[in-house]
Hints:
The complex is a heterodimer of chains A (177) and B (250).
Chain A: H1 3-17, H2 19-38, H3 42-58, H4 60-64, H5 67-96, H6 105-112, H7 114-124, H8 127-137, H9 142-149, H10 153-175
Helix pairs in contact in A: 2-3, 2-5, 3-5, 5-7, 5-8, 5-9, 7-10, 8-10, 9-10
Chain B: H1 2-17, H2 30-45, H3 49-65, H4 72-90, E1 112-114, E2 120-122, E3 130-136, H5 141-157, E4 162-168, H6 174-184, E5 189-192, H7 195-200, E6 209-213, E7 219-224, H8 229-240
Parallel strand pairs in B: 3-4, 4-5
Antiparallel strand pairs in B: 1-2, 3-6, 6-7
Amino acid sequence: MNASSEAVAGVEAIGARFDLETVFRAQYDRIARIIARVVHDRARAEELAVEVFLKLWRDRKAQDGNTEGWLYRVAVHAGLDELRRQTRRARYERLLGLVRTVPTPEEIHAANEEHERVRRVLSVMARCQSELLLLRSHGLTYYEVAATLDLNPASVGTLLIRAQQAFRKEYIKRYGR
Amino acid sequence: MEGNNEAQLGRWVDGRLAVLRPAGDWQPDAVTGLARLRERSGGERTRGGSWTWAAAAATAVAFGLLAFPAPRAAAQRFCTACLMAAQNLAAGHTTGTVLKPAKERKPAPDFTLDDDSGRPIQLSGFKGKVVLLNFWATWCGGCKVEIPWLIEFQEQYGQRGFVVLGVSLDADGWKLVRPFISEKKINYRVMIGTDDIAARYGADQALPVSLLIDKSGRIAATHVGLPEKSAYRAEIEKLLGRKTRTAGAD
């Protein structure tokens, strides 16, 4: 083996050593995108995505089973938690008068943006329903959604319809049709 | 009829949720993400707190045994082993080091390149020193993370026979690299690499690639991507030879 192939062998050795990194390279993009759907701030979404992989690294059990499903579930949790935190913070700040009471035109515009509306509705819905909607809208099949959320595949359709009804009800209550 | 309603409901909700899709041009920065992950997971992995305490407790027990003549010799050996383990843990030598045993190391392929002032630098001219050969580029996120470490290592270990050599693989050459060196205040020598040299070191597939070359010019460790800073430091110290250790420990 010459020195060049020695260096390349080093590459392989490093790859074998870091299983977590292999998973990270394969899944980071998708996990960051799932979180970014819920969290408006992309930089924050990337931070949260790293946190998801750190959780995986700490959780031996998660490394052995359906790692991909586990990552999706934890990513959606992380995104929804962040969304709820942001909503709560905004509410408290309004209540305590820590911020201006009169919103700027930009703030009014942002609040009326469709994605903000959708996020708000998701943040107040039952968590399991929000998760279901987000995973499904991310393109996961019924079977994948069932595996990710640990549900019976036969009941995913019913649960999804209920979640969609709850979403529409909350949306119309807040914003009309 | 009910099926139609459900389908309509599904389309309505899907239409709303579709606005959450991030713009197509957005690309999550995996290199920076990986650097963060390594920093965080590495920090936790090298946290040797509980093991340090265990080693200290075992040492205390062994010192107690020294009072009795019969197990004294065994206790002395045990004490020495525990003290060394505790020392290593405190220095962060627990994980991440990938130094090859001396007899398995292969010679680093030699090359000569000019630095930013036009002076030729030949790798084999650094025999007798420990060299950290770092392949990088100005556009590489992981490289930017580790450059401050390399600056620190050059400053800290430079007097002890340690040298960092940076080989930039920027296609635009000095036009980009020279201002970058000034901006980052890089204190080690930088060259512009060629495809051939990059390929010989495996740096044509990924960046950053760093190699630790021992005093006899042999590759002692190869890091592809961003390693843990503590692992770098431990390897450098090991190759330089610590004062408290006997020669040839690496």
